[in-house]
Each structure stands twice: as structure tokens, then as C-alpha cells.
Design brief:
Structural class: mainly alpha
Shape: elongated
Low-confidence stretches: 293-297
Number of domains: 2
Helix content: over 70%
Strand content: under 5%
Number of helices: 18
Number of strands: 0
Largest sheet: none
Order of helices and strands: HHHHHHHHHHHHHHHHHH
Distance between the termini: 49 Å
Mean pLDDT: 81
Amino acid sequence: MIAHLPADLVHFVLTVVLSFLVGLEIKTYREKNVKNQSRYFFFGTARTITFIGVLGFVFYRIDPVHLIPYVTVMILLSGLFAIFYRKRLKEGHPGILLYVVMLCVYAFGPLSQILPLWAPALLFVTVVFVLNAQRAIDRFIQGADTYEFETLGKMVLLSAVILPLLPDRQVAAWLPLSPFKIWLAVVVISAISYGGYLAQRYFFPHKGYFLTGIIGGTYSSTATTVVLARKAVAVGGSRIIDAAIVAATSMMYLRLIVVAGIFNMAIAKMVAIPFTLLALVGFGLSALLLRGKGERAGPVEAEDRNPLELGTALVFALLFVVMMILTDYVTKHYGNVGLEILSFLVGFTDIDPFVLSLLTGKYAVAGEHVASAILIAAGSNNLLKALYALWFGRGRHTGRAALLIALLGVATIALGFYRPIFELASHL
């Protein structure tokens, strides 16, 4: 039925409805957040906001080419607000929120006529969301570290400006990947880690032990293990902390599946089955540990560094290149056995550069051996985390978690040597 109505009528009704709803939202905003509401009345009533939306529609429709009436009315409205704003400045209230909302409402009319109907609707949703999210935004800004956003700005600059300038061709015989693809891989891995880092630091500020393990595992299971082990010493040991440490390692398996899927889908299919099984076993062990009673899931202060720090990214890129060169040399001179030994040794360091080199490089080994190397590296990395849990948890506080992680590590290495599981995955 709407399709048979004149287009101008549909656009006008949409403008009026959205403007009126914004006016009601401003009224609600004043009641919740403003003590002296009288100083907000100038641009703050539902009727005024509705008429501003109508004015925007009418004066844009009069001259949609040169926009002289539309711009003139906008200037007049801005002048009226300037008079009102001068009085507010004297009262010590410099905010211009209502003026900005007025400009958004004034744009409903043109948007409804020149763009699809979802455009003004999206603007309306954005206005309502921002007005209702004041307290959440204030908490986020107060808790945010400005240095981290400065770091994010540097990384955006390097990704958006420097990345396109890098050559997308092989520049050296000993480096099997172009500089463009090397840095692109670093940016992708950093972005995945940064997402987990933001969730851990800002979106769950009062997270409990177990949630720390879950989210921390998407960012760095090793760092999360260290943080939780230290916390276990502070509280005298806890089954919940043990469960969180095991959960962090379980999330590592899922994270490696995602990383493999981004860079090498064939290898991702091979590691998906064993890593999924190991993750399920890990979460099952965590669930058994969580059955302990009488313990408090208190907050944890994470001490992890921002993964988008420029120095961290450059070190990661350097390790990535070194691992790629080393892997290429080992596979050419020592074959599959050399790769397996290298995988086990690398697991006692940061395995991300090594795994990334396996996923993106072209080596003289079959895909099954690459998948096997990833599992072996993940397994030996679990052994390293078990040692960390014992060391930082002073043995008796995190002994259960260390034992379970070590068992998961041994199982992971064993699956890495079990070739039929990769053959099964390749046929799916």
C-alpha cells in the first residue's frame, strides 16, 4: 500500500515521525540527566524538534539544487541558538548537545528525499543510541588510557598509509613473502589480539576470574596464565582460578583455528578437528573445576600490554620474518623431522610468529606436516604455560591447573604426530 502513495508524502511523514521521536527522546534525556530543565527548553521540546524537522524538509524541497532557502534557515536557527548559547555560557553550561541534535533533525528532510529510507532511520537510531549511552560513554572515556588510543592512531596510520606503499612482490630470494603481505599479516594478528584486549580491559571492567580466562585466551593465553597464577597466590589458591587458567588455554585452540582460517583455509580444515576436540576437553575440565563451592569469583586486574604498541608490532614483524627464514632453511635441509623438532622448541617462546610463518609461507613439506607442526608448537607452548603456572603460582596454589595444562600439552603433541586425523579432515 505504501508503494502507491506519493513519494513526497512518504518522505514527509517519515521526517515528521522521526523528528517527533527524537523530541520525545530529548525530553526523556532531560528528565534523567538535567536538574534545571528550564535552561534546555529553547531547543528541547518535542514540538520544537518536530517543527525543525518539517522546516528542513520544506526548505530543501523548495530548492534542492542551490539549497539557498535550506542553508538560510539553518543559519537563522544557528543564530538563534547562538543568542541562547551566550546566556548558557554565562551560567557556566558550555554544552552544545541540543544544537547538534537539532542539526541532525534538520537533516532528516533532505536525507529522506535523496537517499534510501534506511539513511534517515540510521541517523535516528544513532541519535537515540548516543543520547541513551551517555553514562556508558562517560565511564569508557574516564577509564580509557589516552596513550593506548595514541598507539591505535599510529597503527592506523601505518596500516592505511604505509601498507599500500609497500611492494607486493618478492624482494629477496631468502624471503618467500612480499613486504606487503608480511605487514598485512602483522596487522591482522594485531587486530585479533587488540579485540580481545579491549574486551578484557574496557568492556568487562568488573570481570570475574573465569571470564578473565575466557577473554584473555583470545588475546594471549600465556599472559593470562601469568596474571591468574599471581592472583592465585594473592587469594591463597582457588578452583575458579584453576578453571580460568585451563579455559584460557582452551580458547587458544579456538583462536588458532580462526587465525588458520584467515591465512590458509586448507591448513585450517586440518587443524580444526584436533583443536576443537582439545578445546572441548579443556572446557570440560574447566567445568569440573568450577563445581567447587564457597568461592568468590572476584575481579582481576590484568597487566597485559597493548598489542598495538608500535614496538610490539615491529618486534612481531621481525620474529615473523626470522621464523619464516628459519623454517624455510630447516625444511629444505632437514625435512619433516627438522620441522617437528623446530616446532617443539619454538613452542617454548611466542608461537604466533611461527604459526603465521607456517600458514603464509611455501615450504618443501606437505600440508599435513605443516598442520602437525602447528599442533606440536601449541602443545609445547602448553608445557611452557604449565611451568609458568607453577612458578608464578608458587606450586601449591596452581598445581591442578598446571597439571591439566601439561596433560593438554602432551595430548596436543600426540595428536600432532597422528597423521590419520589430518587425512580425515582433508576429506571433509
